[in-house]
Design brief:
The structure holds 2 protein chains of 2 kinds. Chain A is 0% helix and 52% strand. Chain A is mostly beta strands. Classes of the chains: A mainly beta, B mainly beta. Chains A and B meet through β4, β5, β9 and β10 of A and β4, β5, β9 and β10 of B.
Chain lengths: 115, 113
C-alpha cells in the first residue's frame, strides 16, 4: 500500500538546468509534506517542507509546490548543481489524523546532475 | 549545527541475539523516532516517542522491539531476539514539535548473520 509514490526512480539533468521531482499521495489526511535528500551511507537530510494550507514554499534554489486537489507535490531545483546529485525522498505526515507525526516516505528518486 | 548522533555505525550480530541501538537526539527536541530502511526499499516508520512514552508505532514494531529514554539525552532501540530480516539501516530522528521537520542521524547498519 503505497500512500506516497515517487514514480520516477531516476532523473538526469544538465548542470544549470531545472530539476523537477514529482510525488503523488493517496491519503487525504496528510497535512504536512517534506522533501529529504540522501547520500549513500548517510541519513536523510531535511530540505524543505510545506503545510497543506499553502501551495508553494521557496527556500533558495529549492521550491516545493503542492496541488491538493491532484494530491501531487513537486520539488523544483534551479539551477541544478552537481552537488545536488543524491536520492530525493518525498515524505508526508498526518495520515492518522491529529497528533500523528510519523513520516510516510516514497521510494525515492535518484537525481544525477551532469556537469 | 546541532545534529542527531547514532552509535554504533555498524553492528553485526548473530541471529537470536539482542541488540541495542543508541541515539542522542538534538537537545531541545521533544519528539523522537526510529525508522529503518531495508536495502533497496523505502524508509519505514517504526515508532515515535513523546513525553516518555510511545505515541505511535507501526505494525513492524512488534513485541521484539522496545524503546527507552534511560536518561535525559539518550534514546535507544532494543531488538530482543534478532532475525535475519531485521538486517537494515536504522535511523533515529528527532523533531522540535508538532508538524515540524524531523532531523535524522547517520544511521546504524545492522547485519544479522
Amino acid at each position: 500500500d503505497q500512500q506516497v509514490k515517487q514514480n520516477s526512480p531516476s532523473l538526469s539533468v544538465q548542470e544549470g538546468r531545472i530539476s523537477i521531482l514529482n510525488c503523488d499521495y493517496t491519503n487525504s489526511m496528510f497535512d504536512y509534506f517534506l522533501w529529504y535528500k540522501k547520500y549513500p551511507a548517510e541519513g536523510p537530510t531535511f530540505l524543505i517542507s510545506i503545510s497543506s494550507i499553502k501551495d508553494k514554499n521557496e527556500d533558495g534554489r529549492f521550491t516545493v509546490f503542492l496541488n491538493k486537489s491532484a494530491k501531487h507535490l513537486s520539488l523544483h531545483i534551479v539551477p541544478s548543481q552537481p552537488g545536488d546529485s543524491a536520492v530525493y525522498f518525498c515524505a508526508a505526515s498526518g495520515a492518522s489524523g491529529a497528533g500523528s507525526y510519523q513520516l510516510t516516505f516514497g521510494k525515492g528518486t535518484k537525481l544525477s546532475v551532469i556537469p | 549545527e546541532p545534529e542527531v548522533t547514532q552509535t554504533p555505525s555498524h553492528q553485526v550480530t548473530q541471529m537470536g541475539q539482542e541488540v541495542i541501538l543508541r541515539c542522542v537526539p538534538i537537545s531541545n527536541h521533544l519528539y523522537f523516532y526510529w525508522y529503518r530502511q531495508i536495502l533497496g526499499q523505502k524508509v519505514e516508520f517504526l515508532v515515535s516517542f513523546y513525553n516518555n512514552e510511545i505515541s505511535e508505532k507501526s505494525e513492524i514494531f512488534d513485541d521484539q522491539f522496545s524503546v527507552e529514554r534511560p536518561d535525559g539525552s539518550n534514546f535507544t532501540l532494543k531488538i530482543r531476539s534478532t532475525k535475519l530480516e531485521d538486517s537494515a539501516m536504522y535511523f533515529c530522528a528527532s523533531s522540535e514539535g508538532e508538524n515540524t521537520e524531523a532531523f535524522f542521524g547517520q544511521g546504524t547498519r545492522l547485519t544479522v548473520v
